[in-house]
Amino acid sequence: MLISDGKERFSKKAGVYHRARPSYPKEIVREVFKNINNTNMPPVVIDVGAGTGKFTSLLLEQGSIVYAVEPNKAMREQLTLAYGHNPNLHIITATAEKTTLPSAMADLIVAAHSFHWFDEYECKKEFSRILKNDGKVCLVWNWYAIKRESAMKEYYDLIRECATKEISRENKMKPDLFGIFFAQYETTSYPNDRYLDFQTVLQLAESANYSPVEGEQGYEIMRSRLQEWFDKHQKNNLVRFSCDSTMYKGIL
User: Fold this and answer.
1) What is the pLDDT of residue 12?
2) What are residue 246's DSSP bridge partners?
3) Termini Cα distance of the chain
4) Do the Cβ atoms of 99 and 130 come closer than 8 Å?
5) Smallest Cα–Cα separation from 32: which of 43, 18, 22, 21?
6) Would the pTM of this model clear 0.90, i.e. be above it?
7) Which residues does the chain have with pLDDT short of 50?
8) Which of 33, 44, 101, 217 is the most exposed place for a label (fewest CB within 10 A)?
9) Edge to edge, what strands does the sheet with 184-196 contain?
10) Which helix (H) or strand (E) holds 157?
11) What span, in angstroms and rounded, lies between the C-alpha atoms of 170 and 117?
12) What is the pLDDT of residues 168-191, one digit of tens each?
């Protein structure tokens, strides 16, 4: 799959992505900012592949100056609608491999559930250029908790079986990749569980880059199978939807 394909995969999904995708635990945010910019000035943070702003909003809550880099127009529009009123937010039309930002400006670079779309070699060069000498990089994901929740393994398998586009590049995220990308790094993970109704579960499935949306071939089959999964696992019309928020933080 061409990396450029990833820039357009979410053009029809920005709204449902923003409504249904999970945020991140406060513990992850605390870890992100640990030992970052010990001066009295607000840290300058580059949120690369910012999407609709799920992580951007958490960065802004910490008082950071945030440059949100996002190549997809629909995602940027949703980001602007939700958070564009914040004077600390600067929305940049660019890519991870060519951010267009000045050199040595960033205390911290964050990529939240987006790094798998990047060319890791080209973006490493770009990240090194825009980071300050003591700057750090944080790569964050919300992974389905398939190892600790059997229901999540069923969901994971189901939406992949219903995929109508090539599965995304998430499968390239292997431990040896991080060892190559970082000069030194540490990793931490926290549970990120929510209780969802069926409509949110359906929207969450739709938000996957490889899933059909309403009106497309395969959508009704996916909806029917999700309803069966939901009915099997729900209590009081809610299911526990479990993720593990995992962060890799280090220097390049």
Assistant:
1) 83
2) 141, 189
3) 27
4) yes
5) 43
6) yes
7) 1-4
8) 217
9) 89-92, 65-69, 44-48, 106-112, 131-144, 239-251, 184-196
10) helix 150-161
11) 8
12) 555 567 778 899 999 999 999 999
Q: What residue type is 222 in one-letter code?
A: M
Instruction: Tokens for 36, please give them.
Output: 């970052």
> d(Cα 158, Cα 163) in Å, to the nearest integer?
9
All structural domains of the chain? 3-251 (3.40.50.150)
Inter-helix orientation angle 150-161/219-233, to 10°:
170
Task: List, as own/partner pairs, every contact residues 66-74 make where C-beta atoms lie below 8 angstroms and the sequence separation is at least 24, other chains included.
Answer: 66/90, 67/92, 67/99, 67/101, 67/106, 68/92, 69/94, 69/95, 69/96, 69/99, 69/101, 71/7, 71/95, 72/7, 72/8, 72/10, 72/11, 72/14, 73/11, 74/10, 74/11, 74/12, 74/13, 74/14
Nearest to 68 by CA among 53, 86, 82: 53
Q: List the structure tokens of 54.
A: 């799920």
Answer positive or negative: Cα dihedral of 57, 58, 62, 68.
negative
| Tokens encoding 105 | 């400006």
